[in-house]
């Protein structure tokens, strides 16, 4: 029986080999590097020769005076990104689904997805072109039209939570929108035809058919984002503010803090400890979120 099954699915098993090999090499073998987080890493002695340091590398993250700020910024930014990406991604996907002309539907999808493909370095300079004090479009064109004085955006931290949120949504919402749109297109048209026969309008169809059938996809995408809530888009928080020191109270997150510290101290153990801390917290949050989802609706849980 097993031989027959192996012959039947042999081609599929062969096709799985490259993917499994990639997964092992790229995702599992690097886990060996976790050991560096518990060592006082010395380049000349290597991983095995370096002395054990216990939890000393983790103390660096929690005993610093910036620990509260970088943790607060990381969680609040990612929390806002998750909520806004969900609302805007689903909303735009529903609107795109109502565009019946194939050409315009593809055109809008391309326009929305394009920012996702642009390097964050280029995005940083686009933002600079808008906000520069000397030549920026906002300072030289928009604010004078409104009768407002120029703003030194790169020296006032209070504006950057809004700027970074707008840039992130502009760059990533299109990608999520395409995923949600694909899920909407996969919904059986018979549901909508039956609803129309019953006299349901577009809003009622969206509320009673589209959104309920999107819940499994929304749950999976949200859980994946929650799993990385302690990770930040390094390019967004480092390249877009152009690493301006005056903005670090609102732009400094765990990733940028570790990077700056690594540049100054060159401590591999410290950066490994930060990565392990982020992974463990993310893993716990995924299990916790999945547990809550499972309690509410078992069918929507990932596992």
Summarize the structure in short:
By secondary structure, the chain is mainly alpha-helical.
Description:
The protein has 15 helices and two strands. It is globular. 72% of the residues lie in helices and 2% in strands. A two-stranded antiparallel sheet has the order 1-2. The chain has helices at residues 2-8, 10-28, 46-49, 56-63, 67-97, 102-117, 120-131, 137-145, 160-185, 189-197, 202-227, 234-238, 248-251, 254-265, 268-296; strands at residues 39-42, 50-52. Helix 5 runs parallel beside helix 9 and helix 6 packs across helix 9. The chain has 303 residues and is an all-alpha fold.
Note the run of SSEs as H and E. Answer: HHEHEHHHHHHHHHHHH
Low-confidence stretches: none
Instruction: Categorize the overall geometry.
Output: globular
Radius of gyration: 24 Å
Overall mean pLDDT? 86
Measured between the Cα atoms of the first and last residue, the distance is: 29 Å
Strand content: under 5%
Structural class: mainly alpha
How many strands, which pairing sense, and closed or not: the largest β-sheet?
2 strands, antiparallel
Count every helix, treating DSSP H or I runs of 4 or more residues as helices. Answer: 15
Helix and strand arrangement:
Blueprint: H1 2-8, H2 10-28, E1 39-42, H3 46-49, E2 50-52, H4 56-63, H5 67-97, H6 102-117, H7 120-131, H8 137-145, H9 160-185, H10 189-197, H11 202-227, H12 234-238, H13 248-251, H14 254-265, H15 268-296
Antiparallel strand pairs: 1-2
Helix pairs in contact: 4-15, 5-9, 5-11, 6-9, 11-15, 14-15
